[in-house]
Amino acid sequence: MKLILLGAPGSGKGTQAEFISRELSIPTISTGAIFREEMQKGTKIGLKVKEYIDAGMLVPDETVLEVIRERLAREDCKNGYILDGFPRTIHQAEALDRITDIDYVISLEVPDADIEKRLTGRRVCSKCGKTYHIKYDDTARSGICNECGGALTVREDDKPETVRARLDVYHKQSEPLKDYYRNKGKLKSVEGTGPVDEIRKLILEALSV
Fold this sequence. Notes:
CATH class: Alpha Beta
CATH superfamily: P-loop containing nucleotide triphosphate hydrolases
Low-confidence stretches: none
Structural class: alpha/beta
Shape: globular
Strand content: 15-25%
Radius of gyration: 18 Å
Oligomer: single chain
Largest sheet: 5 strands, parallel
CATH architecture: 3-Layer(aba) Sandwich
Distance between the termini: 11 Å
Mean pLDDT: 92
Helix content: 40-55%
Strand order of the largest sheet: 2-3-1-4-8
CATH topology: Rossmann fold
Number of helices: 9
Order of helices and strands: EHEHHHEHEHEEEHHEH
């Protein structure tokens, strides 16, 4: 099964992708993870990506599509895959259509207000990197990591003004993808609030598996 996971930053795509990957025995493909892997290996495309990232520029669609095309050709994708974080725009979706045929698109629907609470409440240990949340998974001692005793910090992209900016970009660039795939009869909208296990159940029901 070939899937795309859509949803705003903080909607829970990564968590659900991990579950679906195990449930259906198909890999999750994240462009960010691929970029990091290629840069670490020092491949030709990895060096190309690094140039853009080091310059603080977005990686061009042509390069992203080259990375995606190569990744989908690998053996572990023969029974399907989950695309997380791609496509982000209609232009990328149209290009993806020329590479492969997607079966379903799962859109996790979470109100902006809920996402802001999720992300702005997140805290990360400055020493070991463990993640907490001031409301849902706080530490025993305020501001101190349970694992290593390191100080907790707020990531730059979790600050309120940054979260709102990221949501704005999502609504302008990526949300139109819902209509694009709805018109193709491939969109499955799933309520993304509530217990994680309940959301997983709704996704499997939407996929009829």
